[in-house]
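Morning!

This is the sequence you dropped in the shared folder:
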Amino acid sequence: MTALTAEPVRIPLTDGQHVSGLLQPASPARAGYVMAHGAGAGMTHSFLAAMAEGLAPRGIASLRYQFLYMEQGSKRPDPPKLAQAAVRAAVLEAGRRLPGVPLFAGGKSFGGRMTSQAQAAAPLPGVRGLIFLGFPLHPPDKPSTERAQHLSAVSIPMLFLQGTRDEFAELALLEPLCAGLGARVTLKLFPDADHSFHVPARSGRRDADVRAEIMDTIAGWAGELAGTPA
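The structure's back. Tokens below.
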């Protein structure tokens, strides 16, 4: 499988505005991942770039995209309805550009949460599952499960990729939450990793090792659901 060069795209929103995207093809593409960024960094962040570039040789094409506030250079995240509209527009664009390819959606932190809210409000066309790169269950030092209440309305499979040192998701809350959602949820934990999937040197692992394991997990999980195993 060969990784190709990412292609810049413009994604139209319903109000005549546009946001930028980067389509990373895979040849052949077994699945496509519509990948949203976190609250503080856009689609070109090194973590998302590494995900896109590493998933492509594994047969997973991806579409990274900006939320409108990031496109406009603002530091204040969009309100949920506006962010969810961008998610839906990106999914539609991915469907147009990857015809016939099974789609998955999600992203890093805030982007994953906005994707799940969009799916809970109305199913995202053609999306077979959601993939969360560090689901932000609660703010640091403010443990709660309120941010996850909408997940009970998500009926498609969900993959949670979570570091055991993630300050945005205490395991004492996350593990029973995932168990309560039933068989449609898969929780994959990464020992010693924080919210950015960084691991300390004392762990004996490198960040690159963690990223590779994340990509292998995504490729295996998505490929199985899409009926296109590696």
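Headline: The longest helix spans residues 207-226.

More detail when I'm at my desk.
O.
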